[in-house]
Amino acid sequence: MTDNRLAAYLDRIALPAAPDVSAEGLAALLSAHRRAIAFENLDIPLGRGIRIDSESVFDKLVTRRRGGYCFEQNRLLGDRLVELGFTLRPLLARVHLGNPPEAITVRSHVTLLVTLDGAPWIVDGGFGGSDLPLLPLIDGATATSPDGATHRLRRTGALCGDWLLERAGPHGATDGRALPHEDWQAQYSFDLVHVAPDDLEQCNHWTSTRPGTRFTTLHIASIALPSGFASLTDRMLVVQEGGTKSTREIANAADYAQLLQSLFKLNVSAAEAEALPLFA
């Protein structure tokens, strides 16, 4: 069964063979995952709720070819990495993107800490704000994503977490929450405290049900592109590809469903799109 699941996952992310247990293999798999499985929250406005157990996540993101947000994406990615022989554990993070610098946000994001040959790496298949490449957990470590942005880890020891992930790059290659300049901006912070399964369940419940938040008031989808990023927030689509940015407003539910299927690679029917509060 696990072999079948791995094969189905590799097919879902269009990776022809299982990668080696190495930094190069990990980077290739992460890149393929982020370009194949869109970040999205549409089951929340559809009233379906978010389940993050392994069975439910695999069924949704692989079998039914939908997307998901961080607790789903990194559950799927983490399960397959363990199956491939990687050693990892989840970490909880506070998202700063789109929030005031002084705000102490809740732990509403999960990322993965992968250990390779005794060295820790940050692996995140479920951050919806922008593309995010593999990064070694080293103070000052940087990596560049195909959209031209640079990403940096800093050890801060601040109240919001021991580590801070920052990004500097094109505003258009984000989901719109970034400030309009291309200088360093905080994405999220985290520490290395042990995270239990119930911690993830608790944070996922808050994130998917808390009234008045981004995930319970907006319809969201985003995906990394070969040299850019696409973001859909309610009816507004922003695509940055090869240094060129374009925007357009989605006209109706049929247009919305077709866009989700073609650009975001999501199996969302026209009937499901029409059922969204966005088109009520």
Q: Could you name the key traits of this structure?
A:
280 residues; alpha+beta; Arylamine N-acetyltransferase fold; eight-stranded antiparallel beta sheet; 8 helices; 30% helix; 28% strand; globular
Structure description:
This protein is of the alpha+beta class. It has a single domain, classed as Arylamine N-acetyltransferase fold. Helices cover 30% and strands 28% of the residues. It has eight helices and 13 strands. The strands form two sheets. It has an eight-stranded antiparallel sheet. It has a five-stranded antiparallel sheet with strand order 1-10-11-12-13. A hairpin with a 2-residue loop joins β7 and β8. α3 packs across α4. The longest helix is centred in the first third of the chain and has 15 residues. The mean pLDDT is 95.
